[in-house]
Structures are given as C-alpha cells and as structure tokens.
C-alpha cells in the first residue's frame, strides 16, 4: 500500500494527466468513456478527478454533448504563462512572413524532452490545408519536418 504522501502525489499526477489529455482534445471534447480508455483508470476514479478539475475551473463539461473541454481557468493560466515565456511573440512575425511568402501553413514547435510540441500554426492562403498538426499536438522527435530538424540539431549525447 502506498504511503499517504505517495498516494497524494499519485492523485495529483493522475489529475494532471487528465488535464493534459482533455487539453489536447479540447476543441472536440472528450466523452468520459474515452478518457477512461485512454488513461486506463477506473470510471469512478476518472469521474472523481474530473470533478476536482471542474471545481478548480480547469475543466468544463458541455451540457449538450456531455464532453469534457478545458475550462476558463486553464485559458487564464495559459495566457499568464504565455506572457512569461514570450516565445510565440518572438516567432510570430517570422511565421507570418513565412506563410505569406509560401502561401502555406507554418508551424512553431518547441522541444519538450523527446517530443516536439506545436505551440502555434499560422495559416497561409494556399487552398489546400494540412490538419496533421494543431497547436498543442506533440509528436516524438523525428516525426515531421520541424521535429526532424530538432532531432538533427541535438548533440550525440542527447
């Protein structure tokens, strides 16, 4: 049986995993059944954790569809974080210029451990759109051109 400290930490880890999962699918939302399948947690555990996230305003459930989406507090925290890091501010003008020149979609991704995380996509005017990568998506390094460039730039020790 886990110690109380580890058990409390386990609950926090699980709740944060749910928050991340809901966040990555927030546009369409996720039904409870899919969250249970994706996490491998029991339905009562998932429901209890979602209720805690809902009380904090981090997750919301749509009345009409019963699907879970990121809540308003998650949006506020994201805005606060964005102003602290400012990475997108540095890249946005270049992304727009690149999309204007190529008429295609350009992407801004950052490395997080062994993954590339898309922070922003800037649409070009080309009539054919790619939907392979959305803001918030993450892929293992080496999957996709931008991610492959990140992998190629790593030293041998990494």
Explain what you see.
With 158 residues, the chain is α+β, with helices and mostly antiparallel strands. The protein contains six helices and five strands, in the order H-H-H-E-E-H-H-E-E-E-H. It has a three-stranded antiparallel β-sheet with strand order 3-4-5. Strands 1-2 form a two-stranded antiparallel sheet. Helix 1 (4-24) crosses helix 3. The radius of gyration is 18 Å and the shape is globular. The two termini are 36 Å apart. The mean pLDDT is 88.
Radius of gyration: 18 Å
**Mean pLDDT over the residues:** 88
Helix content: 40-55%
**Shape assignment:** globular
Specify the structural class: alpha+beta
Residue windows where pLDDT falls under 50 for at least 5 positions: none
Distance between the termini: 36 Å
Helix segment tally: 6
């Amino acid at each position: 049986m886990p110690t109380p400290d580890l058990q409390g930490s386990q609950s926090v880890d699980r709740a944060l995993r749910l928050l991340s999962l809901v966040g990555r699918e927030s546009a369409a939302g996720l039904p409870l059944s899919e969250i249970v399948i994706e996490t491998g947690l029991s339905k009562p555990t998932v429901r209890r954790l979602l209720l805690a996230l809902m009380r904090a305003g981090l997750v919301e459930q749509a009345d009409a569809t019963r699907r879970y989406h990121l809540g308003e507090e998650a949006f506020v925290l994201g805005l606060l974080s964005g102003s602290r890091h400012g990475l997108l501010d540095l890249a946005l003008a270049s992304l727009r210029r690149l999309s204007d020149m190529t008429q295609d979609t350009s992407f801004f991704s950052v490395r997080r451990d062994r993954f590339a995380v898309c922070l922003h996509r800037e649409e070009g005017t080309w009539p054919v759109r790619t939907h392979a990568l959305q803001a918030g998506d993450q892929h293992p390094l080496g999957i996709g051109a931008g991610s492959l460039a990140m992998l190629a730039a790593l030293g041998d020790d990494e």
